[in-house]
Design goal:
By secondary structure, the chain is an alpha+beta fold. The protein has helices at 6-14, 31-40, 60-73, 100-109, and strands at residues 16-19, 22-24, 44-48, 79-86, 89-96, 114-119, 125-128. It starts with 5 loop residues before the first helix and ends with a strand. It has a seven-stranded antiparallel sheet. It has one domain (6-128).
């Protein structure tokens, strides 16, 4: 996939990514997200969903089926359900405790354009897939 359009990149960077009441924003550290990582027993994690492949809107039923498949595929990973979004969009995702390289493989399998990587002591960062 080609790099996302500039407007889409701005939307990703402006969005809030939430799980277990903790919110991450690109370029910022979040003590609340770091506390969730500690509860999961991991140092690194990623916000990853299966909705809207390559950031193209799909019907709600399709998105829900794909998200259920992602949940099943990651059932052995430490995980917390959440959602992300910004102006005019909102979608489900998981905060998955795993090496970001492993999560990138999953993200590509579910045709995601990007994911958000978080780690203790570091700001959240956008990783294009």
């Amino acid at each position: 996939m080609a790099e996302p359009r500039p407007g889409l990149l701005r939307a990703y960077r402006a969005a809030a990514y939430e799980a277990a009441g903790a919110v991450a924003r690109i370029g910022r550290r979040s003590p609340a997200v770091e506390a969730v990582l500690a509860r999961l027993g991991v140092r690194r994690a990623g916000f990853l969903g299966a909705w809207n492949p390559y950031s193209r809107r799909m019907p709600a039923g399709w998105n829900q089926r794909m998200q259920a498949r992602l949940v099943l595929a990651t059932r052995r990973l430490p995980a917390v359900a959440g959602h992300g979004g910004g102006a005019g969009w909102r979608e489900a995702h998981l905060l998955l405790g795993a090496d970001p390289r492993r999560l990138a493989v999953l993200g590509r399998r579910y045709r995601q354009a990007a994911m958000v990587v978080v780690a203790r002591g570091q700001p959240a960062r956008l990783r294009l897939l």
